[in-house]
Amino acid sequence: MTTTHTLLTPASNQTPVVVNTLPELSGPQWVTRFPGSNRISDLNSSFRQAIESFISALTTAGANVRISATYRPRERAYLMHYCVKVAKGLISPDRVPTMNGVEIEWDHGDDRSSKNAAAQMARSYTIVHPPALISRHTERAAIDMTITGIIGKTMLDASAAAVEVTDNAVLYRIGASYGCHKLISDPPHWSDNGT
After folding, report:
1. How large is the C-alpha radius of gyration of the chain?
2. Could you tell me the maximum CA-CA distance found in the chain, to the nearest angstrom?
3. Are 55 and 65 in contact (CB under 8 A)?
4. 156 in Cβ contact with 80 (< 8 Å)
5. Considering the entire predicted model, what is its pTM?
6. What's the rounded Cα separation, in Å, for the pair 140 and 120?
7. Which residues pair with residue 128 across a beta bridge?
8. Taking a C-beta distance cutoff of 8 angstroms, is the pair 192, 140 a contact?
9. Axis-axis angle for helices 74-87, 111-125 (nearest 10)
């Protein structure tokens, strides 16, 4: 879609200049824009305190924790959300709503090209779970992290009780005691309310 701006020149005898601004087509080049964070310091204060305590208990027990995402700007959430929808044919590329500050054109002129570009974006984002437009990530209340090496070990829950982590269900209960709730359908995702 072309946005047209008319620039009026100061002299009345000059012809107005018309400038066409073309939004940039969708594709994997968008993935590096509006970067998210993987820093705990970018979380809101209450969830930051909860996750710091939980991670401290995990690492003290001998677990390895790798953080891949914390805060996600709304612009990035918009790009992630709609690239999945376009790629899967859940929305026509010419029906994607615009977002202020994100000059992207989802419609490449035909469905196949549009879906292909959106699918390339989704792969480049390494999307596991379809992202919401507004999520706990955009609200600074979620973390994506991979925890390994904890099954079979004993760690402290938030009440300082020693608990043997026999499986993931036990780990999820321990996390909840700290205020870190697991979204089971999204492997790395934890948040303040489980969504």
Report:
1. 22
2. 84
3. yes
4. no
5. 0.77
6. 27
7. none
8. no
9. 130
SS (H, E, C) the chain: CCEEEEECCCCCCCCCEEEEECCEECCHHHHHCCCCCCCHHHCCHHHHHHHHHHHHHHHHCCCEEEEEECCCCHHHHHHHHHHHHHHCCCCCHHHCCCECCECEECCCCCHHHHHHHHHHHHHHHCCCCCCCCCCCCCCCCEEEEEEECCCCCEEECCCCCEEECCCHHHHHHHHHHHCCEECCCCCCEEECCCC
Structure tokens that stand for 92 in this block: 């026509």
Long-range contacts from 14-19, C-beta under 8 angstroms, 24+ separation: none
Q: What is the mean pLDDT of each run of 10 residues along the chain (195 residues)?
A: 42 51 91 97 98 98 97 97 97 97 97 98 90 93 98 98 98 98 94 96
- Which positions ≥6 away from 122 have C-beta within 8 Å? 80, 83, 84, 87
CB-count burial class (<10 Å; 0-12, 13-18, 19+) for 21 = exposed
